[in-house]
Each structure stands twice: as C-alpha cells, then as structure tokens.
Design brief:
By secondary structure, the chain is of the alpha+beta class. It is built from five helices and six strands. Helix content is 28%, strand content 29%. Strands 1-2-3-6-5-4 form a six-stranded antiparallel beta barrel.
C-alpha cells in the first residue's frame, strides 16, 4: 500500500518575497506612479493598489502596495504577510487607525478599513479564485498560518467624513 501525502503549497523563500516587494515599491516611486498599480480583471488577475497607513507606534506615514479586487464599491484584500505567520504591519496599523486613503490606477480613494464578518468572509474568500495570482491553492497557503487569514474590506468614506 502506498501512502499519499499532501504537500503544503510552496512559496518562495522569505528574502525573495521581501526583495520583490521592495523592487515593486521602488519601481512605483521611480516612475512617479506610472508603473505598479493595476485594475483587477475577473478571470485575469487581481489589481494592485497603494495603501497608506500611519504607524501605530511611530505615528509616521507608511505605504504598501497590496493586491485587491472590487466587491461593489468596496475594495477587498487579504491580511497576509507573504503567507508568513505574523500579521502584516499594514493591517495592524489599520486596526489602530482605520481611516485612510488608497491610490488606484484610476486615482485616489478615501476609505475605512475593517475585517470582514464571518458571513462576508466566506462569500468574499470564494471570490479570490476569480482573480488569479494569490496562489494556486489559496486554502492550502492559508492553512500554513496558525491563524485565520483576515479578509480586509476597504469601504468608501463620505467626503464629509474625510475632511
């Protein structure tokens, strides 16, 4: 009898992931934002947005580029740190200060971040499969983490609230 073992999906070494993130941010800066952001295409690829946060300890502005897709007026992303176990700093920062802005390929938006509720998470998690690029086995990658991967919803804020 042969024992079949399921292997966890492989990811690149951590240093490679960090270098790719650094190069992406650098390319964005060097091109004045002409490279690095994209609009999501269902069945094609997830979009890329530039997310502003305020450091929860330092109080300094922080920028990160993350993948997303649109769910009506909301932007949806995953609080994953290259599938490492720790929560990403940008998500910890948003939990402390959820009102922020994002830069999209079609311009900036003022948003408020929150974690999806259990029902929302289930519905939104399935939709990640419509936007390839997160990983071939999203559930397998998420299972590598000791905690459930948070689905983050960025909801539009009224201009009056933003002022």
């Amino acid at each position: 009898m042969t024992v079949v073992r399921e292997q966890a999906p492989r990811t690149p070494p951590r240093f490679v992931i960090r270098i790719v993130w650094m190069l992406h941010r650098t390319a964005y800066r060097l091109t004045g934002g002409r490279f690095g952001l994209s609009t999501p295409e269902a069945g094609g690829r997830f979009g890329m947005m530039r997310l502003a946060t305020v450091g929860r300890r330092s109080g300094k502005p922080r920028m990160v580029i993350v993948g997303y897709y649109e769910d009506g007026p909301n932007l949806v992303t995953l609080a994953m740190n290259g599938w490492a176990d720790a929560e990403p700093a940008w998500w910890l920062n948003l939990q402390a200060s959820p009102d922020t802005t994002v830069d999209l390929a079609d311009g900036p938006r003022v948003v408020r971040a929150r974690a999806a509720t259990a029902d929302e998470r289930e519905r939104l998690w399935v939709k990640f499969d419509n936007y390839p690029g997160w990983g071939e086995d999203l559930d397998g990658l998420a299972a590598r983490r000791s905690m459930q991967t948070t689905v983050v919803i960025l909801e539009p804020r009224d201009r009056a609230v933003a002022s």
